[in-house]
Amino acid sequence: MTLTVLVAYKTRSTMLDKLIYIETFGCQMNVNDSERIVSMLAELGYAPTNDPATADMILLNTCSVRGGAEEKVYRRLANLRIYKRDGKKQIIAVGGCVAQQEGEELLRKLPYLDLVIGTHNLHLLPDMVIGAEHGERRSETTFIDNEQRLDLFPSIKGESRLSRFVTVMQGCDNFCSYCIVPFVRGREISRRSKDILTEVRQLADDGVREVILLGQNVNSYGSKIDYEPTFAELIQQVAEIKGIDRIRFTTSHPKDMSDDLIACFGNVPKLSGQIHLPAQSGSDAVLSLMGRGYTRNSYLEKICKLKTIRPDIVVTGDIIVGFPGESDADFEQSLSLMEEVRYIDLFSFVYSPRPGTKAAKLHDDLPRTLKMSRLDQLMELQRRITREISQTYIGSIMNVLAEGEGKLPGQISGKADIGRIVNFTGDVSMIGSFIDVKITKAYPNSLLGELYK
Ligand code: SAH
Ligand code: SF4
Ligand code: F3S
């Protein structure tokens, strides 16, 4: 995934006379961090560019959730390095989860690399970049696993957009047996609700219409501190803010999906009708080995409650195939879970052992060909389900936040309440408003529509 920077800069005191090229991999935490980096470095005079050749600084914001991540970074850096050879000083930096995992080792292995910036150290980046402009190489990957992290967390300034992420918590304490995230993002810390609400109010004043509450496990928000609201209460408080008309959140863990949070889908009209609720597997045996803390039935019960409270809710999810010991019957259980839930979209992954995780000690016993054929089967099923659900939208009216011009002339593009991209014939004066659109056609990843009068 490469970051597309849709940034409208307001006037700044600094001239933007240098260029930064960022490539972002992995999850929305990284996408959001890249936005943060763009905002911080604007203070030093860097403007984003899509062309690495002309950039004064290149930064890879990396993900290490699956194996081969380090090699991928080395390969990409080797490719990008050609731009550094024409004699021009160009700062090369690695951030994100591979940076956190590898630290100084990256500087040792790659003599042309200038900076390595860990996931808790973004506040140091401006200082590091100033040093690098004078030839200093530096790696900063110290974890800050206490509340100080919250105070050091840089905010995003000087941008105006219609939809914005708002971090509510960072890190993860779940230690699912396959997952590296707790090792590269550190302990779970919830932001203070008063800071979150102040940020959302400010965004509303700046014209933002939709906020996406962000974290690795948002629905455990506040559960480890008794003076903060629960996640359900936080959503209600955000919903009271004038100007914000739609709220989304990602990602949630099924075990922390409380009845109160489920109830929000019925009693908070601003809450979007889409939820990302990764199951990872449909088999109890595999779920138990994964350490997920729920069973197939308890997961399905939560889906059932959600659908009872909001019958038109759409669910997206993640499933891993080929976990050590996954039998044909276990895999069949994942397929049947997909049929029962009827995800509109599914992110599917082949299990990949990660160093230091519990599952890495299990014998990774399934042949690669079997894992790949399971993945193909699963994706095939998902394509069918997505198609079937999408077809049911034809003729329906969706409320769409018009976010920008579409690819075709005279077309406006936006997002429906259920999170699908909708393109429709309209004009630019609609951008920034919620528009009723009648759906006329369904594509695999988007919908087409016309104005509904
Ligand atoms: N916090 C999020 C997920 C973060 S990682 C959550 O719990 O929902 C995103 C996805 O990557 C996970 O949901 C999982 O499906 C996948 N993933 C994580 N570790 C993996 C591994 N070792 N091999 C394959 N897929 C993995
Ligand atoms: Fe990884 Fe599990 Fe935490 Fe998600 S909840 S980030 S899958 S450890
Ligand atoms: Fe990847 Fe790090 Fe996110 S490992 S999934 S970028 S938290």
First-last Cα distance:
37 Å
Strand content: 15-25%
Question: Can you list the strand order of the major beta sheet?
Answer: 3-2-4-5-6-7
How would you name the CATH homologous superfamily of the largest domain?
tm_1862 like domain
From the structure provided, what is the oligomeric state, counting identical versus distinct chains? Answer: single chain
- The overall pLDDT average reads 93
Shape: globular
CATH architecture of the largest domain: Alpha-Beta Horseshoe
List unreliable stretches of 5+ residues. Answer: 1-13
| Distinct small molecules bound, one entry per kind | S-adenosyl-L-homocysteine, iron/sulfur cluster, FE3-S4 cluster
In the residues, how many domains can be counted? 3
Continuous helix count: 14
Question: Any chance you could write out the topology, listing elements then pairs?
Answer:
Blueprint: E1 8-9, E2 18-24, H1 28-42, E3 46-48, E4 57-62, H2 69-80, E5 91-95, H3 96-102, H4 104-109, E6 115-117, H5 125-133, E7 138-140, H6 148-152, E8 159-160, E9 163-167, E10 169-170, H7 181-185, E11 189-190, H8 193-205, E12 210-214, H9 231-239, E13 246-250, H10 259-267, E14 274-276, H11 284-290, H12 296-309, E15 314-321, H13 328-341, E16 345-350, H14 368-392, E17 397-405, E18 411-416, E19 421-425, E20 434-442, E21 446-451
Parallel strand pairs: 2-3, 2-4, 4-5, 5-6, 6-7, 9-12, 12-13, 14-15, 15-16, 19-21
Antiparallel strand pairs: 1-8, 10-11, 17-18, 17-20, 18-19, 20-21
Helix pairs in contact: 9-10, 10-12, 13-14
The structure holds S-adenosyl-L-homocysteine, iron/sulfur cluster (SF4) and FE3-S4 cluster (F3S).
